[in-house]
Structures are given as C-alpha cells and as structure tokens.
Amino acid sequence: MTTPAHTTVGIVGGGPAGLLLARQLHLAGIDCVVLEARDRTYVEHRQRAGILEQGTVDALRACGAADRLDREGLIHDGIELRWNRRSHRIDFPALTGGRRVWVYAQTEVVKDLIALQLTDGPPLLFEAEVTAVTGAETDRPVIHYTHEGIRRTLTCDYVVGCDGFHGVVRSAIPATELRTAERTYPYSWFGILANVPPSCDELIYAHSPRGFALHSMRTPTVSRLYLQVPNGTDPDSWSDTQIWDELQSRFAIDSDWKLTPGPITQRAVLPMRSFVTEPMRYGRVLLAGDAAHIVPPTGAKGLNLAAADVIVLARAFADWTATGTTAGLDAYSGTCLKRVWRAEHFSWFMTTTLHTTPDQSAFDTHLQLSQLDRIASSPHAAAELAENYAGLPVG
Ligand code: FAD
Ligand code: DHB
C-alpha cells in the first residue's frame, strides 16, 4: 500500500492509542494515516493489558469495534484482595453506583481495530518505521519514515505520537519545552500465560511476605498470572514447577482454596515505571498514551489511559474540522493530564501497597497491612479503590 504525501492527522504507532484514534477520526470524516514500525503479527500478539474500563468499552462500541468484545469479553463486578492469609472482595457496582470492568485482552482489542481499519480505511502501514518528525512549530509538520526500504515523507496538519514509551515523536518536541517526572521500582513482574481454566471467578491481587502475585485471566480456559520478581530476573531461570509453587504460596489463605497449575505457553519479565511528560502538546505535535505517560501495571490503568487520551483528542479534532475552533486541541494536554495524574497516583498506590521486598522495614509492612485492613473495614476506603479501578469519567 502507498500513502498520500499529505494527510490531516498523521498518526505514529499502531498500538491501541493509534488504532482507536484512527478509527474515531475516520468515522468523523477526518482523514489520517497510521504508520506502524512492526509487522501485523507482532502487533497483534504482543501480550500486554487485560482489563477494560467502561469508558474504553463505550468508545470501542461507538466506533463499531466491540462486536467480539460484547460476545467474548468477561464482565467483572469485583476483585479480591488477599493479605495475611485472608481475603476481601471489592464489589464495584455496589461501591461505584453500578460500574464494572471487562476482561478482554489488549491483543484482541488490537486485532479487532486492525481488521476494521484494513477493510474500511484509513490507511495503516505496517513495517513503516518513523525516524523523525520535523516542523512541530510550523503549520505543516512532516513525518519522515522508511517503508519497503524506501525513505518517504508525510506532510500533515497535525502529528500525533502514539508510538509508546520508546517512540521518536516525543523527541520532536524541544527538550526545553518538556517537563518529565519519573519513578522506578525495585521489582518487576514475571507474567505467564497458561492453558488452564482460571482458579477464580474474579481477579486476585495478593500481598504476601514473599512478594506480590496477581491471578488474572484471558478466557474461561486461559489464565494469566503475575509474580513480583527482582529486576533483571531471567524468565527461563524458573522451572514451571517453581512458578506454580511460588504462586501457590503467595495466594495461600486459611481456606481450602487451591491454584490449579497447567501448561505455561508464554513467559516474560516486565519492568515497572511511572513516567509523565508535560505538556502533551507542542505546536502541531501531540502525544497520546504511553508516548506521554507510563504507569506500573498494578491496577490496569495503562491501556485505559491511552484510550482516554485519544477519546479526548478525537473530539477536539472533530470540533476543529467542523468549526475551525482549536479550543479542544488547546485544552487537550490539561484535560488529559488531570486524569493521568490521578491514574499515576492510583497505580503507585496499588503497587506500593501490595509489593513487598526482603529488605523492607517492619514499619513499611505495618503501613501496608494497616491500609489493606482499612479497605476491608471502611466502605469509604473501599469505594476510593473501586472508583479508581473501575475508571473515572473520561474528559
Ligand atoms: P503501545 O501499545 O506501546 O503502542 C505503540 C506503537 O507504536 C507500537 O505498536 C510500536 O511498535 C509503535 N512504534 C514505536 N516506535 C515507532 C516508530 N518509530 N515508528 C512507527 N511506529 C512506532 N497495562 C496494563 O494495564 N496491564 C498490563 O498487564 C500491562 N502489561 C504491559 C506489558 C508491557 C511489556 C508493556 C510495554 C506495557 C504493558 N501495559 C500494561 C501497558 C499497556 O499495554 C500500554 O499502556 C498500552 O499498550 C499503551 O498503548 P499505546 O498505543 O499508547 O502504546
Ligand atoms: C492484568 C494486568 C494488570 O496489570 C492488572 O492490574 C490486572 C490484569 C492482565 O493482564 O490481565
């Protein structure tokens, strides 16, 4: 496929943010082009997030990308927290006035959006690696990219960087115009996918003296589990038996609940980071999703934040093309950053409340356990967790 030399909105990156933005713009009659560095198979199989908030589901439905999600997605009304060998359920609808979440993997969201885009436009080029974006401060920013071994340019009215944390668009903004805030963590997540029905109906987040563990799922027959491990852990250094035994002991409670092991089909170690770039716009270059901000995964905010950014952005572009107003585009960064910082706090809170390290002080452990006890005993504390987890309103 070749691309035009000019487009209204040039989108760098065909992850969830870029694909959802393209679909929304297309339905609003705004032309755009998506350039994705990797091939289709890679993008469709990259194992990542698994939980969708109501706002994300609504946006996918509004752009006709939710048929399979509505058939196959698992609706969850709560999560279970475990600590000190006991458990407590957080009931989302009861605590939030009816909100809930969907278990539907990011891989499937991406597959659904790609299938729509390839049949119904706008152009989506795989293996089109963007090398630079120039002219951010002009009326015609330019995307420089390589496709099929040929160097090309795409002139745009606006460029949106949906190219993830390691993307190139952020560097089109002069460093003097950006402020960044960052935090790293002394642990990573060891994630596995296993061909075994989940041992629970709802997700389990477990605090244990041996470290954090999370039991999630992909389908009624595929489980997704995570173990906190030290940074730099080699996933192949653990045997399957070691993984299941460790999970079993971190989830242990005083009941006859048991984790059912099964064949592990994928394994990977994921580092964790909190990161925010401000502002999310410079001239005619805008950033969305992981290109602008990263959260540690505890609480499942990353994909939903990316979706929230592009929902706000698509509305702003629709206003601009309909009336010529740039008010929405001007407000984009401020609107999104308010939500981003809330999610940053929640993800940090979930991470630091639930993860333990061998060298942490007794004081820190007591603070964690006291906070978990408070969530179990106070509907207000539980509601605070539930509202953030189920997702705050978009926009
Ligand atoms: P991405 O999904 O990163 O998409 C960016 C796209 O841009 C990619 O397809 C990339 O190939 C492309 N790209 C990059 N550079 C270029 C270039 N130069 N030219 C063209 N294209 C380019 N969140 C959770 O909530 N739960 C999880 O369990 C979870 N696990 C994760 C595991 C990993 C390993 C990672 C990295 C993230 C995880 N996240 C998780 C976060 C969540 O997946 C992200 O927040 C979400 O993918 C953000 O979507 P995005 O479209 O902004 O960025
Ligand atoms: C999943 C990932 C998360 O980070 C989380 O908090 C819940 C679920 C998942 O991959 O299923």
From TrEMBL:
Domain FAD-binding: 7-346
InterPro entries documented for this protein: FAD-bd, FAD/NAD-bd_sf, RIFMO-like
Keyword Lipoprotein: no
Origin superkingdom: Bacteria
GO molecular function: FAD binding; oxidoreductase activity, acting on paired donors, with incorporation or reduction of molecular oxygen, NAD(P)H as one donor, and incorporation of one atom of oxygen
KW Isomerase (keyword) present: no
Transmembrane segments: none
Entry-linked Pfam families: FAD_binding_3 (PF01494)
Keywords associated with the record: FAD, Flavoprotein, Monooxygenase, Oxidoreductase
NCBIfam families in the record: PRK08243.1 (NF006091)
Protein name in UniProt: 4-hydroxybenzoate 3-monooxygenase
The organism of origin for this protein: Streptomyces coryli
